[in-house]
Each structure stands twice: as structure tokens, then as C-alpha cells.
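Practice problem 4.
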């Protein structure tokens, strides 16, 4: 159905909106086809249909067919496939918030605009909240493993750096400590879940904790195997710890709608303070016991 004529300014806004809607329709549709979970497929299909409905609504005013952004389709499809549906789609939603679509302005000539805006801001968020991904259930276990590894292993490496001043010895000690720590954290997480009656989650949560711990250990120990200077190794390990915290905190903030800056600063400050204290203790131990390696 052809709608009444609109001004050139509003028409440009609607064409831009059409491109956004048809692009997201293809993204949601493609992900719906690929997902194995029936409930997730149902949610994604529903959102895709809403996007197509909005596209057709705008098209009735612009009388124009608009092509999607194939780059955006590929980008968000692969982000969702690699990092998970929730992260990929919520990242896309955050991008939408920056989109220059002035629904209030459009509503002056297109009455349905405010209803569409409500769909975009409320309905889609509710639907995205229905998407279930197993790894997000164990995010607490992953955080536990990463946080403990960053604090304990970075502290150990910092202390050993000054005490031993030998990259190979520091790396060896870090690897041994890391493996022992991962096994300890995994078993503790398993027993903790069993004690709380979460028998169905005990094994998987312990595995996620252990894997997260080992990944952090690899990133922290690797610099001591690459660089000949033990102090450069420590600086790179510190940089690695900040990078891990940044990437993981960003992932959590997007996937779980949590504040990024506060969490990031907390983890960086904690691991850095422990590292500095351990570095100082290593110096004291070396001087007090007269250790020379």
C-alpha cells in the first residue's frame, strides 16, 4: 500500500532505516538457519520477521527497494558464530544505538515510527534475553579461573623474577605452579557445586574453570620463554594480563549487559597490586637469603 508523500529529509531517514532493517533481517535469518537449538531458532526467526515487517513499512513510504549491507551481514554472522549468539547480537544492538535514526523526527510525518522505535528498544531486547547459550551459564566459573590465575600466577612470576632472575627457571616454576593451580581450582569448583547440590553443573563448571586458568597461565608464562631478559618478560606478562582482562571484561559487559569500566579497573588494579607486592617480596627474599642463581 502506497502511503502519503513525505519530505525529502524524512525520506532519507527512512531509506537509511530500510537499509538497517533489511541488513538485520538477513543476519537474524542466516543465524536462525544455522542454529541447532529449536528455541533459539524460533526467537531469531521472530526477530527477523519483525525486521522485515519494519522494512516493508518504510518501503511503503519511500517506494524504494534498498539492498542490505553485505559486509555487515558477514561481520555479525561470523562474530556470532565465533563468540556466541548473545555476544554477537548484543554487539549489533549496541551498534544500532549509535545509528542516526531520528524516530521522533520521522514520527512527525510517519505515525508508525514510534511504534517501530518501541519494537527496536524493548521487544527485541526481551526476545534476545530468551536466547540460551550453555557457556554463559558457566561465566562465573570462567571468571573464577581467569581471576585466580591472573592474581596468583602473575604474583608468582613477579616474585620469582627478582628472586631468580632467570627466564627459564621463572617459566618452569610458573608452568608447574599454573598446572597445580588449575587442578586445584577445578577440583574446588567441582566440590563447591556438589556441596550446593548443583550436581548437573559440577563437572562442566570445573572444566570451564580449569581451562580458563590454563589459558591465562599460557599467556603469562609465554613471555619468559620468548624473551631473554627476565624483566622484559615480566613487563610483557603484565601487558598480557591487562589485555586478557580487557578482552574478557568487554565480552562480559556486552553479553551480560554489565558495566565495563568498573569491572576492568577492579581486575587490573587487583592483579597489579598483587604483582607489585610479590615483586617486592621477591627482592626481600633474594637479599635476606642471599640467593644467587
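Answer key:
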Amino acid at each position: 500500500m502506497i502511503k502519503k508523500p513525505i519530505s525529502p529529509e524524512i525520506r532519507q531517514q527512512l531509506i537509511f532505516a530500510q537499509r538497517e532493517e533489511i541488513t538485520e533481517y538477513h543476519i537474524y535469518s542466516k543465524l536462525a538457519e544455522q542454529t541447532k537449538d529449536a528455541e533459539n531458532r524460533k526467537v531469531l526467526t521472530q526477530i527477523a520477521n519483525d525486521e522485515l515487517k519494519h522494512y516493508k513499512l518504510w518501503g511503503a513510504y519511500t517506494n524504494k527497494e534498498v539492498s542490505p549491507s553485505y559486509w555487515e551481514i558477514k561481520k555479525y554472522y561470523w562474530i556470532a558464530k565465533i563468540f556466541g549468539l548473545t555476544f554477537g547480537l548484543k554487539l549489533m544492538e549496541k551498534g544500532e544505538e549509535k545509528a542516526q535514526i531520528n524516530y521522533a523526527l520521522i514520527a512527525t510525518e510517519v505515525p508508525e515510527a514510534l511504534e517501530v522505535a518501541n519494537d527496536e528498544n524493548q521487544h527485541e531486547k526481551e526476545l534476545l534475553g530468551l536466547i540460551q547459550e550453555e557457556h554463559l551459564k558457566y561465566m562465573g566459573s570462567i571468571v573464577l579461573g581467569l581471576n585466580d590465575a591472573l592474581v596468583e600466577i602473575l604474583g608468582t612470576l613477579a616474585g620469582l623474577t627478582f628472586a631468580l632472575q632467570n627466564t627459564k627457571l621463572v617459566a618452569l616454576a610458573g608452568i608447574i605452579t599454573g598446572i597445580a593451580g588449575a587442578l586445584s581450582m577445578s577440583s574446588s569448583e567441582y566440590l563447591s557445586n556438589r556441596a550446593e547440590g548443583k550436581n548437573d553443573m559440577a563437572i562442566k563448571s570445573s572444566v570451564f574453570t580449569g581451562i580458563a586458568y590454563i589459558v591465562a597461565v599460557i599467556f603469562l608464562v609465554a613471555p619468559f620463554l620468548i624473551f631473554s631478559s627476565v624483566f622484559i618478560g615480566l613487563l610483557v606478562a603484565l601487558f598480557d594480563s591487562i589485555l586478557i582482562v580487557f578482552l574478557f571484561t568487554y565480552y562480559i559487559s556486552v553479553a551480560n549487559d554489565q558495566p565495563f569500566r568498573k569491572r576492568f579497573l577492579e581486575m587490573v588494579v587487583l592483579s597489579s597490586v598483587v604483582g607489585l607486592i610479590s615483586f617486592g617480596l621477591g627482592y626481600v627474599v633474594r637479599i635476606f637469603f642471599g640467593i644467587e642463581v
